[in-house]
Specification:
This protein has 800 residues and is α/β, with parallel strands linked by helices. Helices cover 32% and strands 16% of the residues.
């Protein structure tokens, strides 16, 4: 009985071994990979038949094929019936051939209802029959296996029949090769299969261990070596690429280095330095805390690639023009907050005028829009350093794209959401801000312009010259700081770039990251070393008893707020009003005041516009407002009427009555007319105090007495003239004096306090501690309630 057969997991070629019988047939194995035949020699003269695919395992033993799962069939004359295993993969049954047996295991067959045997429609295997001795019955036809191309098996009368390798009939009764596995057809004749099997075996042996020169070898007719060589060549190029992707990272480092270290002879950067301006990345370093910048889109730009001559799959960076608007995250620190140091994370965009004068380069627009949306989602303040058009279009853009386009400002919708949600938007003009760049810096909560290099305009001097015939205009003439910092387009002016960045850091120190969700950042009451109970006796006499005398309103503001905390916004425009930021007991507040030194404090158009912006600014950032009121009314005269003073006065009233942030009023002197009523009466309950110097009413006494007593004064003048010619004027003045003295006594603020029309008249020296106490109260439960109302949508502040 034969030995057990081991499985070969590589080629899985089965082989018959019958050690007990000296009369053993030759074993021939087909090579299913290279289609190489192999011959196995035995010690007898019996004929051999082709065997199913198998392979020697190097030790002389033949193993089974687990891939094609062809069963090992043994033929022994002395063994009566040896079991063959079924093929579980292709469902090919093992055949059990014996010279003494009349029955054998059949593959799947089916009867067609007429007694004939038909093919198996599932596996397409024909029925196979074997006879005991010289079959008197013809075997059924052999059908091809269309799925795996396994031919049907036809049992022979020979005693040494065995399972055949894959074969296929060509329709004419001849056996052809297997086109799927490239297995040659095998004949049923033992004598004809012997030479061909020997040739295959010799070829396979030559491939495994080349034979000496002169050996009988036959070159294989069908081989996949050329295909293998091609695949190996591609694989070689692939393997030349670093496994750790260091080539890709090298490209990124090269581009980043080119962007951060431009060549010294670059025309744009040479022009930038000659104009006294910082480069874009120098500005980023000047504004942000050292080492805090994390760039977004660091390799955005235009790259010129060069092919690697040694590897067609590789390339290198030959040249790189970075995007002219580097952007990213960083942190800033407000230096005015002392040892506490309020730090803010911001999203920063910085124009690079050295590259295409800041015009669109194909990457600025999408990257800027992405940055604005990212800041909106993360509730991070945005800082815009504008020097150019901030990605605006130019005529050359048409030549690059090959077509013109309808103008669009996609970014504006996102910016408006930021403004109304109270996400701080800061802008600085540090060069010529043109078109879209100008619009971006104006669409902010706070803007500043560098006096030495800043300018802003809708179109440059050349375009203006062609449209309005204004020739010889410089950037400063057309839109310098003394144009836009004095008309309210830009809030503040700074000496140079560095002061611009200092002002931006200062403003951010007073503001929350998102007014819709947070209160402003508070410091300890002792942060500046200024006692909240501090008194200033000099305030008692700062306002003269003569109403026509002026005083310095800034002295009052700086005396009341924490030392070193006052920061004014918009000093060069709307000068009849004062606005800014400060702290009271460490807590941020917005400060409003009338300026009696300009137009006697009467609000003009620009003054109203300034107060409107400050009220909305405070409302959107949850800043309580402390205002110092001394308003004789709205400005009068032809200039005032032509500049629509009343229109903007009403707009100021809308701002007061639509805002919801708390307001505390310190009435220092006058409150007259519509302007006085709007500033004092917009909150319920009123929260206000009055100084002893206060007086109020519908009209100031100067001019009011004449209006109110015109007929009476006229009658006295006429009657005196009748009685004594020339005495009418003296009688008029006498009566006017009497009326003025009477009204002066009646204007005593205590009389108003008697009827509780003013809550309290206080000593001016106590103003600071009163304001600090009120501010502390507003940052308690009222602030929590306000934030809850904003979150629920009960109140919706609007800045734009």
């Amino acid at each position: 009985m034969g030995k057990n057969i081991a499985d070969d997991p590589v080629y899985s070629q089965p082989k018959d071994r019958t050690e007990s019988s000296p009369d053993r047939s030759q074993d021939i194995a087909d090579d299913p990979t290279y289609n190489q035949p192999k011959k196995g020699n035995s010690g007898n003269d019996h004929g051999s038949v082709p065997q199913s695919p198998r392979k020697q395992d190097g030790k002389g033993e033949v193993t089974e094929d687990p891939t094609y799962n062809q069963p090992n069939a043994t033929q022994s004359q002395s063994q009566s019936q040896q079991g063959i295993a079924d093929d579980p993969t292709y469902n090919q049954p093992g055949t059990n051939g014996s010279s003494n047996q009349s029955s054998s295991q059949q593959p799947p067959i089916k009867q067609d209802g007429k007694g004939d045997v038909t093919e198996d429609p599932t596996y397409n295997q024909p029925g196979a029959t074997q006879s005991q001795s010289g079959s008197s019955r013809k075997s059924p036809p052999i059908a091809d296996d269309p799925t795996y191309n396994q031919p049907g098996t036809n049992g022979s009368n020979s005693e040494h029949s065995s399972q055949q390798p894959p074969i296929k009939q060509d329709g004419k009764g001849e056996v052809t090769e297997d086109p799927t596995y490239n297995q040659p057809g095998a004949t049923q004749s033992q004598s004809s299969s012997q030479p061909r099997a020997s040739e295959r075996l010799s070829q396979l042996n030559n491939q495994i261990a080349p034979s000496p020169t002169g050996s009988d070898t036959i070159s294989p007719a069908n081989t996949s070596k050329p295909r293998q060589q091609k695949r190996k060549k591609n694989q070689d190029y692939q393997t030349l690429l670093p496994a750790d992707y260091s080539d890709i990272m090298g490209h990124i480092r090269t581009m980043q280095d080119m962007a951060q270290n431009p060549p010294a002879d670059h025309r744009g950067y040479t022009r930038q330095k000659a104009g006294g301006k910082m480069t874009s990345r120098e500005r980023i370093a000047a504004l942000l805390n050292p080492g805090s910048f994390r760039e977004v889109g660091s390799v955005t730009g235009t790259t010129k690639w060069a092919l690697d001559p040694e590897n067609p799959l590789s390339e290198r960076v030959e040249d790189f023009i970075p995007s002219n608007n580097p952007q990213g995250f960083g942190s800033v620190t407000c230096l005015r907050t002392g040892a506490t140091r309020v730090n803010k994370q911001v999203y920063l965009t910085s124009d690079d005028f050295a590259i295409r004068a800041g015009h669109a380069d194909g990457a600025v627009g999408p990257k800027t829009l992405y940055g604005e949306k990212l800041a909106l989602r993360l509730k991070v303040p945005v800082v815009k350093l504008v020097d150019g058009s901030s990605g605006g279009g130019s005529v050359s853009t048409i030549a690059t794209t090959g077509f013109s386009y309808l103008p669009h400002v996609t970014i504006m919708g996102t910016v408006v959401k930021q403004l109304n949600q109270g996400i701080p938007n800061m802008g600085a003009v540090v060069g010529p801000a043109i078109g879209l760049g100008f619009a971006r810096v104006v669409a902010t909560h706070f803007s500043v312009m560098a006096a030495d290099i800043g300018s802003a305009f809708n179109a440059g001097p050349k375009v203006v010259e062609g449209a309005t015939f204004e020739e010889g205009l410089s950037f400063q003439d057309l839109g310098g700081p003394y144009v836009h910092c004095c008309n309210g387009t830009i809030d503040n002016m700074a000496r140079d770039e560095r002061e611009c960045y200092e002002q931006i850091r200062t403003v951010l120190g007073y503001l929350p990251n998102c007014g819709a969700l947070e209160p402003p950042p508070c410091l300890e009451a002792w942060w500046s070393g200024d006692d909240v109970l501090r008194e200033d006796v000099s305030l008692r006499s700062i306002i003269s008893r003569k109403n026509n005398r002026m005083y310095d309103p800034y002295r009052i503001i700086e005396s009341v707020v924490d030392k070193g905390s006052w920061f004014e916004i918009g000093r060069l425009w709307g000068k009849t009003a004062i606005g800014g930021l400060a702290r009271l007991g460490g807590k941020p507040v917005a400060i409003l005041s009338n300026n009696c030194e300009v137009n006697s404090g009467a609000l003009d158009t620009a003054g109203s516009q300034k107060l409107i912006k400050m009220i909305k600014f405070a409302d959107i950032f949850n800043l309580p407002i402390v205002q110092f009121v001394d308003v004789p009314g709205y400005a009068i005269g032809t200039v005032a009427e032509r500049s629509a003073v009343m229109k903007w006065g009403v707009e100021l009233g809308k701002a007061y009555y639509t805002s919801t942030t708390p307001i505390f009023t310190v009435l220092t002197r006058r409150a007259y007319g519509v302007a006085g009523g709007i500033m004092l009466d917009s909150r319920e309950p009123w929260m206000r105090i009055a100084w002893p110097s206060s007086n109020w009413g519908s009209l100031p006494l100067e001019g009011g007495i004449e209006v109110g007593h015109r007929f009476e004064l006229k009658t006295i003048r006429e009657q005196a003239e009748k009685e004594k010619p020339g005495s009418g004027e003296e009688a008029w003045k006498k009566k006017y004096k009497e009326l003025n003295e009477m009204y002066t006594r009646l204007l005593n603020p205590v009389r108003t306090a008697n009827v509780f029309n003013v809550e309290e008249i206080v000593d001016p020296k106590d103003t600071r501690k009163i304001c600090c106490r009120w501010t502390k109260e507003m940052y308690g439960l009222p602030m929590k309630e306000r934030l809850a109302d904003r979150a629920s949508g009960k109140i919706v502040p609007v800045f734009s």
